[in-house]
Write a sequence for this structure.
């Protein structure tokens, strides 16, 4: 079986670098300070905080752009004092106008404002609180949706504790698998992958190779009926229990993900069963790409163990008298 050390080495390699984390911190801190102190927007500003995979510690190293920079993708929540009766489209527009005065490259999106900087990309998400409930605007549909980003962060920590610290590493490996093995549609991705892993992982398993295999196989068995019926599975949003994180996804997108997981459940099981290190490496690299380390042979340890186990040591019942060379008394 592939040593655990191969997976821990792989996890270190796909972790965002210290430079990337520093760039992310600088980017979101500067943006939040700007909004908080803006001459007009400061009267709208209530609070802001980091959200998304960087907050939850489930981010993987960013893709390297054509200019050679690995830009982190950061989610920032900005709570503002708009009312529930205000037009969501106008809320996003006001946030965009404020940001565009400081940042050259930005764009209004359905539920946020996207920002591109030399060292980071950011999604700035406005939310309001009404009767103690958080809402996010939908500019396209011109409506408000219930949301709960802080609960997502708390939930991730709770699940990771239940899994004895193995949930977040497994999420990172599954996110990397999605990157290396894309399907026609990018979804499911991000937080949806986290929710799928939470539903499908074995909380008692400690070996990462077995964890990956069992997660794939549980994805196949858990969602087989939904996919067979041509329906999206209901995967509960841990922040809003009545919502499914698959909302807005097409069945075609989920089927593509499901079929890839089904095919790779076989490959992962073969990798787990393989005895030859070269074959293990080949199979795991189908799943995780060339960043998965070469599985090294334990031949020296195996030969030593075999020698020790096969040697038969016997001891006589009487002391042995040495033969004396001639010339000695």
């Amino acid at each position: 079986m592939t040593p655990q050390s191969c997976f821990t080495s792989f996890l270190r390699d796909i972790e965002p670098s210290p430079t990337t984390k520093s760039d992310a911190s600088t980017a979101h801190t500067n943006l939040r300070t700007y909004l908080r102190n803006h001459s007009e927007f400061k009267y709208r500003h209530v609070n802001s905080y980091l959200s998304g995979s960087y907050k939850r510690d489930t981010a993987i190293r960013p893709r390297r752009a054509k200019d050679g920079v690995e830009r982190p993708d950061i989610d920032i929540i900005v709570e503002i004092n708009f009312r529930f009766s205000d037009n969501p489209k106008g809320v996003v527009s006001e946030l965009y106008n404020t940001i565009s005065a400081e940042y050259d490259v930005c764009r209004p999106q359905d539920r946020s404002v996207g920002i591109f900087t030399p060292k980071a990309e950011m999604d700035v998400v406005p939310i309001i609180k009404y009767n103690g409930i958080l809402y996010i605007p939908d500019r396209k549909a011109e409506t408000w949706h219930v949301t709960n980003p802080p609960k997502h962060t708390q939930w991730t920590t709770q699940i990771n504790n239940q899994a004895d610290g193995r949930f977040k590493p497994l999420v990172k490996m599954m996110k990397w698998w999605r990157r290396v093995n894309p399907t026609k549609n990018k979804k499911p991705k991000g937080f949806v992958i986290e929710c799928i892993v939470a539903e499908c992982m074995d909380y008692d398993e400690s070996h990462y190779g077995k964890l990956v295999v069992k997660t794939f196989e549980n994805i196949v068995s858990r969602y087989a009926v939904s996919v067979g019926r041509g329906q999206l599975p209901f995967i509960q949003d841990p922040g809003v229990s009545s919502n499914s994180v698959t909302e807005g996804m097409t069945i075609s997108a989920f089927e593509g993900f499901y079929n890839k997981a089904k095919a790779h459940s076989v490959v992962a099981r073969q990798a787990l069963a393989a005895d030859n290190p070269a074959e293990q490496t080949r199979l795991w690299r189908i799943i995780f790409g060339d960043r998965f380390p070469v599985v090294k042979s334990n031949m020296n340890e195996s030969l030593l163990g075999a020698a020790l186990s096969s040697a038969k040591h016997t001891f006589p019942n009487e002391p042995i008298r040495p033969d004396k060379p001639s010339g000695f008394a």
The longest strand covers residues 121-130. The radius of gyration is 27 Å.
